[in-house]
Write a structure and sequence with these properties.
Keywords: Membrane, Transmembrane, Transmembrane helix
Order of helices and strands: HHHHHHHHHHHH
Low-confidence stretches: 10-15, 18-23
Shape: globular
Number of strands: 0
Radius of gyration: 24 Å
Structural class: mainly alpha
Mean pLDDT: 84
Helix content: over 70%
Protein name: ABC-2 type transport system permease protein
Distance between the termini: 52 Å
Number of helices: 12
Strand content: under 5%
Length: 264
């Protein structure tokens, strides 16, 4: 070595194992696991999800056991549609906090820094919502027939849903999916937890009451019209088609907004 000459610092070779790991995309299952943890990320979220089944069972008992006119299959499945919309409000509130709260508090930034693809981010959240949908649908499907059968027997009516359990499951799954879709659309269009919860808890029940008063008119925009149609209680194909077209268009618009929303 030449006297007075300082050797250059040793630089780690580029492309080492750590660099390769950093360049890799996070596995999709890991993104889903992260979104699942966010769903129960706070103590309040955990408490809400713990009390959600209790609230659902209470609403289900309230809307089934006092029924006195259960002479037809339509009368026996009708309360299910109200139970799904009102009894799952606590679950859907947690979903709204998951989707809208990330944009309000900018907690979406770390997720998008790890993997900047908003499509993968939305698909991961969509997978979590699908898990919630299946759990709620199956829980409702298992419990509701037991309660409505008790109510029918108490009124000396034949229990008519036992021979059409596939139909009952389909109605429960479709109704739950439509309410969950509504919550998702609201939380995407209103990226503020308080605002999204206000819209969902006020506007959606008002639409339900308006649809009961004027089904031919408000069935056109009622988000659960397709589920009522499947249950045999709808007002017609026109209302069902218009309702589906409206809410699917709102979903497409909300996803368009998501792709262009500033995460900063």
């Amino acid at each position: 070595m030449i006297p007075g000459h300082v050797a250059p610092p040793v630089v780690a070779p580029a492309g080492g194992p750590w660099a390769a790991r950093a360049a890799e995309r996070s596995p999709f299952w890991r993104l889903v696991a992260v979104e699942l943890r966010k769903l129960v990320g706070t103590r309040s979220d955990k408490l809400v999800l713990v009390f959600a089944p209790v609230f659902l069972i209470g609403l289900m008992v309230l809307f089934t056991l006092p029924q006195t006119n259960l002479a037809s299959a339509g009368k026996q499945i009708g309360p299910l549609l109200i139970v799904v919309q009102l009894g799952l409000l606590l679950v859907f509130a947690t979903v709204i906090k998951l989707v809208a709260g990330e944009w309000q508090y900018k907690s979406v930034q770390p997720t998008l820094l790890v993997q900047p693809s908003r499509v993968r981010y939305f698909l991961a959240q969509g997978t979590v919502l699908a898990i919630v949908w299946l759990a709620c649908s199956l829980f409702t499907f298992v419990l509701y027939p037991l309660l409505i059968r008790t109510a029918a027997n108490g009124n000396s009516h034949n229990y008519l849903l036992g021979m059409r359990l596939g139909w009952v499951l389909g109605v429960a799954m479709l109704a739950t999916a439509l309410v969950l879709l509504t919550a998702l659309i609201v939380s995407l269009l209103v990226p503020n937890t308080g605002g999204a919860l206000t819209v969902f808890f006020i506007v959606v029940p008002i639409l339900m009451l308006a649809r009961m008063a004027l089904p031919e008119v408000f069935g056109l925009i009622y988000p659960l019209e397709a589920a009522w149609h499947l249950a045999g209680l709808g007002t017609g194909w026109v209302q069902t088609a218009c309702s589906l077209a409206l809410w699917l268009a709102l979903l497409a618009f909300s996803l368009f907004r998501l792709q262009r929303r500033d995460a900063g």
